[in-house]
Amino acid sequence: MSYQLENTQRGEKYNTIFSKVSPAKRRNRTARAHWRSRLLLGLYLALMILPIYWLINMSLQTNSEILGSMTLWPQNLTFDNYIGIFTNSSWYMGYVNSIIYVAMNMLITICVALPAAYAFSRYTFIGDKHLFFWLLTNLMAPPAVFLLPYFQLYYSVGLFDTHIAVALAHCLFNIPLAIWILEGFMSSVPKEIDETAYIDGYSFPRFFVKIFIPMIRSGIGVTLFFLFMFSWVELLLARTLTATSAQPIGMIMTRTSTASGIDWGTLAAAGVLTIIPGILVVYFVRNHIAKGFALGRT
């Protein structure tokens, strides 16, 4: 009782002190806090954007200017670095190869992960939790562990230096990740929806495609974002399992280092072009990503 009385007296004391503060001072304090938060946000964005700006700045300069004095913007603006990439088949085919095997991996992974995640979400079977944990253990191993087995297997069956080889290799990591993310979204959907659909005469494929998948489209958007992010930036498997026909852009970018030095301008231009597909993916699934981060397992 005395504790409650003491808290009440303390609250009344604070209310009395706060009431003595004039409305003008309260507005000034609110305005200062508002501008302080804006300043911190602006500083954070500047630190995040600075490397990208510097990369773009270098891509529009010549090597002599890059290696010379530091400049905040190109003194002699040039697009030769971009022209050299788009006119050289070995360069732009690197982007094509990367996009092909990333798209193949995303398609294969989502087609396998959707029914698997539904099974983990809706059914109980012997060893379900152990199997689910075993799938997640694949994410704990570095890609270098599976490098030699994949290389020998693909070379013996004739899949070496093909897009499907890299796509299937990335499935080892992306399928468990996709199942883990999608299972969280599917578990949030009430099971009564499944039962109601069956009562209404829906077959399972029709229910799954027309009713269930639209209900978890935010989860699918988040999953596709993570699948793209891993497969697009992964270089070790993509570099080892390809030679000439399916080389990714990350492997081709290493060619800028020669005995005469590094072609900094071309390397910067290639880096700028590498960022663009990621920006496009984020733009198209931005609404699903925002909703998925709020609702799902991520």
How would you describe the overall organization of this protein?
The protein is an all-alpha fold and 298 residues long. Helix content is 77%, strand content 1%. The protein has helices at residues 2-20, 23-59, 63-67, 80-87, 89-122, 128-137, 147-157, 163-187, 191-199, 204-215, 217-233, 236-240, 249-253, 264-284, 286-295, and strands spanning 257-258, 261-262. The protein has a two-stranded antiparallel sheet. Helix 8 runs antiparallel to helix 11. It is flat. The chain starts with a helix and ends with a helix. The relative contact order is 0.12.
Radius of gyration: 27 Å
What is the CATH first-level class name of the largest domain?
Answer: Mainly Alpha
Global shape: flat
What is the SS-derived class? mainly alpha
Order of helices and strands: HHHHHHHHHHHHHEEHH
Return the average pLDDT rounded to an integer. Answer: 84
CATH fold topology of the largest domain: MetI-like fold
Strand content bin: under 5%
DSSP helix count?
15
**Annotated CATH architecture of the largest domain:** Orthogonal Bundle
Low-pLDDT segments: none
Helical coverage, percent range: over 70%
Identify the strand order in the major beta sheet: 1-2
Summed up, the domain count is 2
Spatial separation of the terminal alpha carbons = 45 Å
Largest beta-sheet characterization: 2 strands, antiparallel
Number of strands: 2
Subcellular location: Cell membrane
InterPro entries: BP-dep_ABC_trans_perm, MetI-like, MetI-like_sf
Transmembrane segments: 35-56, 99-120, 132-151, 163-186, 207-233, 264-285
Keywords: Cell membrane, Membrane, Transmembrane, Transmembrane helix, Transport
